[in-house]
Amino acid sequence: MIELRDVGKTYPGGKGAVFTAVDGVSLTIPKGSVFGIVGHSGAGKSTLLRLINHLEVPTSGQVLVDGRDLGGLTERQLRAVRRSMGMVFQQFNLFRSRTVLGNVAYPLRLAGTPRAEARRRAEEALRFVGLADQARKYPERLSGGQRQRVGIARALATSPGVLLCDEATSALDPGTTREVLDLLRRVNAELGITIVLITHEMDVVRSLCDRVAVMSDGRVVESGEVYEVFSRPRHPVTEVFVRSALQDLPDGEALERLRARHSGRLVTVPVTRDEAAAGHLSRLLREHGVDFTIAHAGVTDVGDAPLGGVTLELRGAEGDIDAFLAALARVDEPTTTAGAR
Fold first, then answer.
1. What's the pLDDT at 341?
2. Cβ atoms of residues 182 and 129 within 8 Å
3. Rounded to the nearest 5°, which phi and psi values hold at 138?
4. What is the dihedral of CA 19, 27, 42, 24, to 10 degrees?
5. Which residue of 8, 92, 103, 290 has the lowest C-beta tally within 10 Å?
6. Closest to 274 (Cα-Cα) out of 320, 336, 199, 184
7. For 126, left (φ over 0), alpha (ψ -120 to 50), or beta?
8. For residue 154, which of 82, 199, 87, 54 has the smallest C-alpha distance?
9. How far apart are CA 266 and CA 280, in angstroms?
10. Closest by alpha carbon to 310, among 322, 324, 292?
11. What's this model's pTM, rounded to 2 decimal places?
């Protein structure tokens, strides 16, 4: 659906210097996917989003949408491409002077859609996001979550093929964030719309996205299928993001409290979507005569599969525990490891 080929964006700096916001990014975003772009503030992710619809023109490289190089299009052709891409913003960007229905119908009227048709499509979009009964209200009378759903309805009213979301949940509380993510999941599943989601929250990526790209200093430092990136982060920046979402290893004060409560040997064992690994764990515990108690568990769903770690207190002869750990490390070594604490 979207392809970026060695895309760069620079801006003039002071005293003849050049600031590089995006540096040689190449990405492929499959049609019908939910693609997350994550990074700390200043990583270049929002600039990258604006490059996708040519609100920012690349300094170098190519942006292709449905195989068309946007750099070769006229302004009129670009406007048609942009109309095929809905945008959802962090701060909602709703007109206070217009009703909810007026806000959703606005881009349609701007594009020349007849009033009756614009109203029909706006009402249809509001029904989809569950706000048909709020059509006559003004935005200030709505909650933050409702305002964001109005923003999503406005983006959907133009029947886009792509939805670009720039920190769409950052201004929301956790409960409302879940509601908005559930709605975006429906947008993708029921309407088949490709979603590109900019965020600094790896937990949002974990719960919604199929694929993810991690940005740092204008570059993509790691990308791939979400579960693979979570289970085997290769770059230090990715490791920090993954740790913030998983919290699977006890450390610091939590680890000291575990040691105070458990006199046995503490070992953290990963939990993955490899169901065979769990069977190996129980079998090897029995074979080596090692007893255990679950001291800590940090397991969450990434997509539809579990990922995390379980910290066990192992009890038995030291030699038996050592033999058990060695056997566990040998079984399916790429995906099953054990770490003593």
1. 40
2. no
3. -100, 150
4. -20
5. 8
6. 336
7. alpha
8. 87
9. 19
10. 292
11. 0.84
The amino acid sitting at 162 is: V
- pLDDT at residue 130 greater than cutoff 50: yes
For 280-302, the pLDDT digits (tens) are 788 888 889 999 888 887 788 88
SS3 assignment for the chain:
CEEEEEEEEEEECHHHCEEEEEEEEEEEECCCCEEEEECCCCCCHHHHHHHHCCCCCCCEEEEEECCEEHHHCCHHHHHHHHHCEEEECCCCCCCCCCCHHHHHHHHHHHCCCCHHHHHHHHHHHHHHCCCHHHCCCCHHHCCHHHHHHHHHHHHHCCCCCEEEEECCCCCCCHHHHHHHHHHHHHHHHHHCCEEEEEECCHHHHHHHCCEEEEEECCEEEEEEEHHHHHHCCCCHHHHHHHHHHHCCCCCHHHHHHHHHHCCCEEEEEEECCCHHHHHHHHHHHHHCCCEEEEEEEEEEEECCEEEEEEEEEEECCHHHHHHHHHHHHHCCCCCCCCEEC
Residue appearing with tokens 């913003």: 89
State the burial class of residue 108 (Cβ atoms within 10 Å of its Cβ: 0-12, 13-18, 19+): buried
Compute the distance between CA of residue 129 and CA of residue 142 in angstroms, rounded to an integer.
Answer: 14
Place of tokens 């006890």: 250
What the block records as the tokens of 60 is: 């170098």
Residues in the chain: 341
Q: What φ, ψ does residue 111 adopt, rounded to 5°?
A: -85, 0
Token pair 């499959």: residue: 30
Residues 203-233 have pLDDT tens digits of: 899 999 999 999 999 999 999 999 999 988 9
CA dihedral (57, 60, 65, 68) positive or negative: positive
Cβ neighbors of 136 (< 8 A, separation 6 or more) are 99, 100, 101
For residue 29, give the nearest of 50, 46, 6, 52 by alpha carbon.
52
